[in-house]
Specification:
The structure holds two protein chains of two kinds.
Chain A: E1 2-8, H1 13-22, E2 26-29, H2 35-38, E3 47-54, E4 64-66, E5 70-74, H3 79-84, H4 86-91, H5 94-100, H6 105-110, H7 113-119, H8 126-132, E6 136-143, E7 146-153, H9 154-157, E8 158-160, E9 163-164, E10 171-178, E11 184-190, E12 201-210, E13 213-222, E14 229-230, H10 232-238, H11 245-253, H12 265-285, H13 294-304
Parallel strand pairs in A: 1-3, 2-3
Antiparallel strand pairs in A: 4-5, 5-10, 6-7, 6-10, 8-9, 11-12, 12-13, 13-14
Helix pairs in contact in A: 10-11, 11-12
Chain B: E1 3-10, E2 13-20, H1 25-32, E3 51-54, E4 57-60, E5 73-75, H2 88-96, H3 105-118, H4 124-130, H5 141-155, H6 165-168, H7 184-188, E6 204-210, E7 216-222, H8 224-228, E8 232-236, E9 261-262, E10 268-274, H9 277-285, E11 288-293, H10 300-303, E12 318-326, H11 329-335, E13 338-346, E14 358-363, E15 369-373, H12 378-389, E16 396-400, H13 416-426, E17 430-433, H14 436-442, E18 449-457, E19 463-473, H15 481-491, E20 501-508, H16 523-540, H17 545-552, H18 571-581
Parallel strand pairs in B: 1-5, 6-17, 15-16, 19-20
Antiparallel strand pairs in B: 1-2, 3-4, 3-5, 6-10, 7-9, 7-11, 8-10, 12-20, 13-18, 14-15, 14-17, 18-19
Helix pairs in contact in B: 2-5, 15-16, 16-17
The chains are: A alpha+beta, B alpha+beta.
The complex binds FE2/S2 (inorganic) cluster (2 copies).
The site of one FE2/S2 (inorganic) cluster (FES) has 13 residues of chain B, from loops.
């Protein structure tokens, strides 16, 4: 049971800064969908905080801005908004794809993008997607009454399992990311149950093809390593190369050593490789260019290497 | 306890009042407003029994601090309809019989309503996707989906609304006809009160301190600090039991509260009654227990050695051994063309009924001790309770509250004894609701088993002899182990005529969570081994799995494993029908080539998939 005496809901950053300076013993929450199940038997048990500060209604954390090159989302954006918002669906195809795998419709209404990133779970779904979008984290650093904005790359921000570069009072305000409206995207995930799954392996891929060559590709993984990360070797190998079964297969082998999970290593390796290949193929499927013969690539992959059709 | 002032709209009414600041929306609805159609199946966002609308969006109220929704517009299942004025969705649920125990159903109705509000033309796939946050343990999803599709079609005027009349005027026949489920309206509207939904005047709340040791002597229980806490009324231990402190479905070996020692993690030691759940919980944290750890027994094979005894009085860890002997297996195996041997094991399983254990006890105006709980066995419980409480039988009464799913899990009287002790001691009503976690830790599971199997067969598939030994882990207390061993022994070798059979089922005590009754009552584990052996034999002998079963199936005049003569046997009719219906791809299972031909044919259901989809017809324009 989560117990507390006061539940504060600041409406502005200023109010928030004042609040956390004046009250002690508080815990910050946003959607609460992680905190509530955490305060139960078998996990944290009964937990008491004198004060809770709910940041989900802070005005400065609730925004969406769409520019030609850049898109910004407030930290309090809910996963259901990410799933359903028209502009996000068009410009950031990878985000709705992670959302559909995120818990269920009801939890998505409450859970926030910022909360998911701040928890820095090795299994967090949104981190690999944001990595692929070259996302930057905007942090509000509280210095007395002042709020100083600071920008970190996601890599600088996520420091380890459940560890982020955030001072006690600091707050994630939002995220700036690339507008990838001309990219195709695919998210692959395996977990234990359809709804509420904690991923054991997930891969986020965004790519752009021109003249049958990979013009750009960004692949990120999580669940299998302490910190979600980009597969830079795979990306480097593919950029500028022909879209062919041989290249895709060779790339898929390059970075399987990122896996440092303690359990079921071989299984995860197999899944990771399949996911890399599949996420590329599925992204390519959405490519409308006519001279790409995807069936030919798939046939050859099937023949020579792996099972890619499901 | 600190309070918060709320001002919100609930089901169209403006509500202004104070409540406990840490309450979840779920607590506020149930405890303060008595809107008990919203249930708590898990408290952790997993089940959807608590789904409500907040400003038009469906959410899980167990994850929502009530302070967060201050000023919002809330709609609960009570706003959708009443038994005499149900919504289309509710009527459709009644029509298709989409309610069994009913505990998940208010949440399901809410999720269905939300789905059709979001998109009145939702396809079946969209319905499935959007209702994915709600789980049902008994109805199965088929009838629920059927209901939502009917409701959708009526709403869209694609189907006449008089389709619902069928619910009120069922067919004029009983055999093979749909029978009206008379409790459906109370379930689909959230009107039905389960034990946790009930309240009484001056009621106290019980919480239970449970063992964190698998096997230990209890040297001392210190309640002094707990009893001093404001709002704590009293506490009971095994010392408070006035009568014979034993209960059990077959062997009465379990004390109401641990006596002298604990035998598994989760065993009850102290029960506290206080003015609120919060205070009772706090009291638990102030109780001190001094244990002396004992060597533990976790493996059933080890239990057979009797080096460590779980119940010293019995001199053995064997709860029950059922031997069955028929014919002569040595002769049978000698005749066999092939002999196959294998080992099988099964794991413990929780019943996962959606309604966690709950109950209310009180002493009525005539001094009758009364227990209201979703017990699956009230008559037996009543007799045991009379002995435990040292009361004449007419002074004990059990009332069975609606069972929100049982599956055998609610046969054991594991918490009613504590409720009785506290009601007698305080003469006040006592209420107890287990959390999901507590329920999983403390209640009986399906027996985990280890089976060694040997089967002799002729080349034509006819079984000549079978030898089975199944060892079941009964856990710390007897519960239903004895009966489960019997059923496992009687049915385990399957519906096959076996001339020479040696079958042993043995249930033992260990320091694991007790095992008890669970759907099929022991037959499942042994029959799993038997049917697996039949398949292995069919591969080995290159026979069709149907064929090898037909060769051995019971026929009229055969003797069962316990030598009862059968006057009729229908297993072959069943096999014939099944083979036809599933469009069986003939041949032994390992000679079928890469793909079987009978998958996804017209009469078969599709194979399961994860079914995630991105394509949705919905979209939102965020502010
Ligand atoms: S999801 Fe709220 S009680 Fe289960
Ligand atoms: S009817 Fe769904 S859980 Fe019982």
């Amino acid at each position: 049971m989560l117990k507390y005496d006061n539940y504060y809901i600041p409406k502005t950053l200023k109010e928030y800064a004042k609040m956390c300076n004046s009250i002690g013993n508080y815990r910050i929450v946003a959607g609460c969908t992680d905190t509530m199940p955490w305060a139960r038997e078998g996990r944290a048990g009964d937990v008491y905080f004198k004060n809770i500060i709910d940041v989900s209604k802070i005005k400065e954390l609730n925004y969406m801005k769409f520019a030609k090159k850049n898109i910004s989302l407030g930290a309090a954006t809910s996963f259901q908004d990410i799933f359903l918002d028209k502009k996000i669906r068009k410009n950031l195809k990878i985000l709705p794809q992670i959302s559909v795998w995120f818990a269920d419709d009801q939890i998505r209404e409450q859970a926030t993008l910022g909360g998911n990133i701040v928890n820095a779970s090795p299994a967090a779904d949104s981190t690999p997607a944001l990595l692929s979008l070259n996302a930057k984290v905007i942090i509000g650093v509280i210095k007395g009454d002042k709020i100083i904005k600071k920008t970190l790359t996601l890599k600088e921000f996520v420091r380890g399992r459940n560890k982020v570069a955030l001072g006690k009072k600091d707050l994630v305000i939002g995220f700036d990311m690339d507008n990838l409206n001309d990219y195709q995207a695919c998210f692959e995930k395996v977990g234990h149950r359809r709804s509420l799954v904690i991923s054991t392996v997930c891969v986020a891929c965004v790519l752009k093809v021109k003249n049958n060559k990979f013009e750009d590709i960004r692949i990120s993984v999580s669940g299998v390593c302490e910190i979600p990360q980009r597969l830079l070797k795979v990306e480097k190998f593919l950029i500028g190369k022909q879209v062919s079964h041989k290249n895709i297969f060779e790339a898929s082998l390059l970075e399987l050593n990122v896996i440092n999970s303690r359990t079921r290593k071989d299984y995860r390796k197999q899944v990771l490789q399949n996911f890399i290949v599949r996420s590329i193929l599925k992204s390519l499927e959405k490519n409308t260019s006519k001279n790409l013969n995807l069936n030919f690539i798939k046939d050859n992959l099937e023949k020579e290497y792996l099972h890619v059709r499901n | 306890m600190s309070e918060i002032k709320l001002n919100l709209s609930i089901n169209g009414k403006n509500i202004k009042r104070s409540t406990k600041s840490h309450y979840r929306l779920l607590d506020f609805l149930r405890e303060d407003l008595d809107l008990t159609g919203t249930k708590e199946g898990c408290g952790a966002g997993e089940c959807g029994t608590c789904s409500v609308f907040v400003n038009g969006k469906l959410i899980k109220s167990c994850l929502m601090p009530v302070a967060k929704v201050n000023g919002s517009k809330i709609e609960t299942v009570e706003s959708l309809g009443t038994p005499d004025k149900m919504s289309e969705v509710q009527k459709a649920f009644c029509l298709t019989g989409a309610s069994q125990c009913g505990f998940c159903i208010p949440g399901m109705v809410m999720a269905a309503t939300s789905t059709l509000r979001n998109n009145p033309k939702s396809s079946l796939e969209e319905i499935k996707e959007e209702m994915g946050g709600n789980i049902c343990r008994c109805t199965g999803y088929q009838k629920i989906f059927e209901a939502v599709e009917i409701a959708r079609d009526v709403i869209n005027k694609k189907q006449n609304k008089n389709v619902f009349d069928k619910y009120y005027k069922p067919e004029n026949s009983f055999i093979g006809a749909n029978v009206k489920r008379i409790d459906a309206p109370s379930k689909v509207t959230g009107n039905l009160k389960y034990a946790a939904d009930m309240k009484m005047q001056n009621m106290l709340h019980m919480q239970v301190l449970r063992s964190d040791r698998p096997h230990a002597k209890i040297k001392k229980i210190d309640l002094s600090k707990a009893l001093k806490l404001k709002g704590v009324v009293t506490a009971v231990t095994s010392d408070d039991v006035p009568g014979i402190d034993n209960f059990g479905v077959f062997v009465e070996d379990q004390p109401v509260l641990a006596k002298n020692k604990v035998r598994y993690v989760g065993e009850a030691i102290v029960a506290v009654a206080a003015e609120s759940v919060e205070i009772a919980k706090e009291a638990l944290s102030k109780i001190k227990i001094i244990y002396e750890d004992l060597p533990c027994l976790f493996k059933s094979e080890e239990a057979l050695k009797n080096k460590i005894l779980i119940h010293e009085d019995y001199k053995t860890n064997v709860v029950k051994h059922i031997p069955i002997r028929k014919g002569n297996i040595d002769e049978g195996f000698a005749k066999a063309d092939v002999i196959i041997e294998d080992d099988f094991s099964t794991q413990p399983v929780d019943h996962a009924y959606l309604e966690p254990m709950a109950g209310i006890s009180y002493v009525d105006q005539d001094g009758v001790l009364t227990i209201v709980s979703p017990s699956q066995n009230i008559t037996h419980h009543r007799h045991m309770m009379a002995k435990i409480m040292n009361l004449p039988i007419h002074k004990v009464r059990f009332i069975m509250s609606p069972v929100g799913g049982g599956f055998g899990g609610k046969e054991d009287m594991i918490y009613q004894g504590m409720l009785a002790l506290l009601a007698m001691k305080t003469r006040l009503p006592i209420k107890y609701v287990m959390s999901r976690e507590e329920d999983i830790v403390s209640t009986a599971k399906r027996h985990p088993t280890k089976t060694h199997y040997k089967m002799g067969l002729l080349n034509n598939g006819k079984i000549t002899a079978v030898e089975i030994k199944t060892l079941s882990d009964g856990g710390a207390y007897g519960c239903s182990t004895e009966g489960v061993m019997r059923k496992a022994a009687i049915l385990g070798a399957g519906p096959y005529h076996i001339e020479n059979l040696k079958m042993d089922t043995i249930g033992v005590y260990t320091n694991n969570t007790p095992s008890g009754a669970f759907r099929s009552f022991g037959a499942l584990q042994t029959e799993f081994a038997t049917e697996s052996m039949m398949d292995l034999a069919s591969e080995k002998l290159n026979l069709d799995p149907f064929e090898i079963r037909r060769v051995n199936a019971f026929k009229k005049g055969d003797l069962t494993h316990t030598k009862q003569k059968l006057n009729s046997a229908s297993i072959n009719n069943v096999l014939d029908e099944l083979e036809k219906l599933c469009k069986w791809d003939k041949g032994s299972s390992n000679h079928r080539g890469e793909e079987r031909k009978d998958l996804n044919s017209s009469d078969n259901r599709e194979s399961c998939t994860l079914g995630a989809r991105l394509e949705t017809n919905r979209s939102r324009v965020s502010k």
